[in-house]
Amino acid sequence: MGEVYRPEDIIQRKKRQIRDLTPTPIPQPATPTSLETILREIESMKAEITKIKQALRAHSIAIK
């Protein structure tokens, strides 16, 4: 079935605003200030990966 519009509805449809398509800059990752900070972050990531692997194994999901 087709839709029936009142003239007011058609006028309002035409006045819809087009969203802004202005490009936004790509966010840059924050650079660590020292080597110690980088090493702590790596250790933290390794711990998270270990937890994820354990959870996958607990659910009988094979991982390499």
How would you describe this protein?
The chain is an all-alpha fold and 64 residues long. The chain has a domain at 33-64. Helices cover 50% and strands 0% of the residues. The termini are far apart.
Number of strands: 0
Low-confidence stretches: none
Helix content: 40-55%
Number of helices: 2
Q: Gyration radius, to the nearest Å?
A: 27 Å
The sequence of SSEs as H and E is HH
Structural class: mainly alpha
How many strands, which pairing sense, and closed or not: the largest β-sheet? none
Report how far apart the termini are. Answer: 55 Å
Mean pLDDT: 80
What are the main properties of this structure?
single chain; 64 residues; mainly alpha; 2 helices; elongated
Tell me the layout of helices and strands.
Layout: H1 7-14, H2 35-58
Brief summary of the model shown:
The chain is mainly α and 64 residues long. Helices cover 50% and strands 0% of the residues.
